[in-house]
Model the fold of this input.
Amino acid sequence: MLAAKTTCKDRWRQILNEASRIEKKHLLTLQHGISENQFDEMQKANVCLVIPRKLHVHFPASARPSLQTLEKFIVETRTCCR
Done:
């Protein structure tokens, strides 16, 4: 499941209801960073952020290893769906 939101803020929680039966959810956003607390909440809810590579620098250093690029998301999706 890939949802797209311009910003995360509290709107990321909408996808929890929109895809309640899907375990791992992906959220594509163009937002320039989020707080570590918000990122931790998203991780606990099994939401993976898909962020354009050039925006990764705007996210907390602790969150960057867990961020996915759109390219990585596509590769992961193709691999699991074969």
Q: What stands out?
A: The helical segments are 14-18, 36-44, 70-80. The radius of gyration is 12 Å. The chain has one domain: 2-80. The CA atoms of residues 57 and 64 lie 8 Å apart.
